[in-house]
Amino acid sequence: MELFITELSKYAITLLMAFYAYESFAVFRYREESLRGGIYARQNFLMLFIHFSCFMVICFETGDMSYLFFYAFQQMVLFATAVLFHVIYPRANRLIINNMCMLLSIGFVILTRLSYEKAVKQFVIVAVSLAIAIVIPFFVHKLKFLKSLTWIYALAGSAALLVVLVLGKATHGSKISYSVAGVTFQPSEFVKIIFVFFIASALCEAADFYRVALTAAVAGIHVVILVVSKDLGSALIFFVVYVLMVFVATKEYRYLLAGIGGGAVSALAACLLFRHVQVRVQAWLDPWSEIDKGGYQITQSLFAISSGGWFGLGLFEGTPQSIPFVEADFIFSAIAEEMGIAFAMCLILVCLSCFLMFMDISLKLNDRFYQLIAFGLGVTYIFQVFLTIGGGSKFIPLTGVTLPLISYGGSSVLTTLVMFSIVEGLCMIRNDEEKEGQQTEKRQKRGSLKTKQAGSAEESNGMENVQERRKRNPKGKGALGGKQ
After folding, report:
1. Are 118 and 167 contacting, i.e. CB atoms less than 8 angstroms apart?
2. Under a CB-based contact definition with an 8 Å cutoff, are residues 109 and 159 in contact?
3. Position 39 pLDDT exceeds 70
């Protein structure tokens, strides 16, 4: 009976996930947020059923019903998050919040399957991070001086990366984190946001050659520090975000082509200078030749993805632990193995719908600074998704970055939640701009109406004066009694 329930649940969970992914794109049929209420309600129910079904399978597979208590705590936090965001910020975008909670729930499920201890740690980090994230839209909406802090952003970002370079501890050959009072931070995750604010602030008023050159110098400092720290995955994200933001701000294809050329040269130089990059490139080109060495991770990842099939082997039925660092860099492979390629593809679609909503909000904003922030954060998010999934599926060489909101890692999940919250604040600013535009249009209409009324009154007064003169001088005689 338990085997039958587990087998049937695979198809049910995948079907529910497919419906959720469909609803994530169905919202774009309606321009007004008020018309999307039914879609959001259906998403909430689907999220609840998917999350509950996955934990029921975990309980059946392990024989330990205490997992349901862990599920209950997760559901309370996620439900409270969705409700509080909607109550506190009724004008915010609910698709972003729903997708955020959905991705977090998937992360809880797969981390509970991989390591209960790490899942509990991740849950605590998420709960604290959500408490921080829920106040961020208020500050983004109210603080109007953010666009004037250009060089503060530049100095803060560079300083944070330098601290890691000098004081950070090496992890797998790269200096990416340092610890304070026993708490480990990965500053490059937080600097991504500061970096986007710097580029947006520097280019929002003017995007001439001088400004572009100046921002290129600062961006180069960030990238060089990351390269020296051997954090090449983050360096690549910074570089791509900078090139695309400059292109959007200037509309100049020469900058885009120059960025592509510079990126190709930099990639070649990194391959020649860094041994671990050479290992990753060789593992990408032919992992089977080094299956017991540099190609071990990617081959195990490919085995996991291919063995899962369309609907997966089922939770606790695969062997994702055979992939080193599966809970961080290769969590997508674990999802594909045990929950199926169809489920994994729906997961990608949910991430893509987040990116499209970021772009939609960016296009609707009038203020150039906020437009660039929404665009930059959207590119940062979706490019990191691309790097993680592309690396694990051998589409591109491995970069060692995490899958946002799903992979294990405190700095990553906190940063992504902050990014989503900032976009919620930008959505509120967009609503203010729309209201202001409507009020301006009404004032213009009232002014036009008053002008027409004044013109009609003058014309009416003129007619009355003519009629009055005719009454006084019916025969049309002049002042001396002669004909005029």
Report:
1. no
2. no
3. yes
